[in-house]
Amino acid sequence: MQPTRFAGRTAVVTGAARGIGLACARRFAEEGASVALVDLPGSDGAAQAERLAAEGHTARFYPCDVTDRPAVNGTFDKIAAELGVPDVLHANAGILRGSDFPDTTEEEWNAVLTGNLTSVFLCGQAAARLMISARRPGAIVNTASIAVLLTAPEGAAYSASKGGVAALTRAMALSLARHGIRVNAIGPGTVATEMMAPALAHQELADQILSRTPLGRYARPEDIAGVVAFLAGDDAAYLTGQTLYIDGGRLALNYTTTARASAGRP
């Protein structure tokens, strides 16, 4: 924790009412940023912003459907007017839905692609437009997933959407580098959040995930927030166009065995 790392800066976090987004919003606030918590109307975003403000941080809630371009542009303009031009964007909002590939409907496909990929595109454009207009460098962190590289039969739409986020991140990084704007992504593994709770309630699935996670536990939202803060901060000043996987070692594991059985092997 660096209490002044983001002092004088404005950070925007989407999907900030709970889970990873809330942990990241709190991390930015605790490190000195003025934080805009963006989430759907009716979410817990307002209460969470009030809680941060009561602790002495500068935090405001901005209700917004991040899949709606006019709403996104209007929200970012309002943030710039009230808190300042964003120095940091964490485009984190997304949805988790899945069906076996033959059963995936066009409605589900479109909903997942829009919720996970179009939202990142729209928010990234809105933030970049403000940064460029103000001639300010900045950092954008997009939330991808371990599902970019590790998928499942029911993961067609989700993996495609998160793979798109990783590819979009690289394109954004190339386009925005000349403006001093860095763009990276995170690829979380299994994180113990409210959104994941229904899936992890199935003991067989939970045991399978943990058996394939060398560090032997799920990620906490705070684990993800630490990496996001690093990518958004000056310590990552020469890092752009990358996706960092925060997975407890799952992608490093030889999947012919379990994490426990492979312990101690070269």
Summarize the structure in short.
The chain is an alpha/beta fold.
Q: How are the elements arranged and paired?
A:
Elements: E1 10-14, H1 19-30, E2 34-39, H2 45-54, E3 59-63, H3 69-82, E4 88-91, H4 106-133, E5 138-143, H5 156-176, E6 181-188, H6 197-200, H7 203-211, H8 221-232, E7 243-246, H9 259-262
Helix pairs in contact: 1-8, 3-4, 4-5
Pfam family, one: adh_short_C2
Keywords: Oxidoreductase
GO biological process, one term: fatty acid biosynthetic process
Overview of this protein structure:
This protein has 266 residues and is of the alpha/beta class. It has one domain (10-246): Rossmann fold. It is 43% helix and 14% strand. It has 9 helices and 7 strands; from the N terminus they run βαβαβαβαβαβαααβα. The chain has helices at residues 19-30, 45-54, 69-82, 106-133, 156-176, 197-200, 203-211, 221-232, 259-262, and strands at 10-14, 34-39, 59-63, 88-91, 138-143, 181-188, 243-246. Strands 3-2-1-4-5-6-7 form a 7-stranded parallel sheet, sandwiched between helices. The longest helix has 28 residues, at 106-133. The two termini are 33 Å apart.
Q: How would you describe this structure in keywords?
A:
266 residues; alpha/beta; Rossmann fold; seven-stranded parallel sheet; 7 strands
Shape: globular
Q: Report how far the terminal alpha carbons are from each other.
A: 33 Å
Do you know the CATH architecture? 3-Layer(aba) Sandwich
Stretches where pLDDT is under 50 for at least 5 consecutive residues are 261-266
What is the typical, i.e. mean, pLDDT?
93
- Supply the CATH class: Alpha Beta
SSE order in H/E notation? EHEHEHEHEHEHHHEH
Order of neighbouring strands in the sheet with most strands: 3-2-1-4-5-6-7
Number of strands: 7
Q: State the helicity in percent bands.
A: 40-55%
Largest sheet: 7 strands, parallel
Helix-and-strand structural type: alpha/beta
Radius of gyration: 18 Å
Oligomer: single chain
> Count the helices. How many?
9
Count the domains. 1
Find the CATH topology.
Rossmann fold
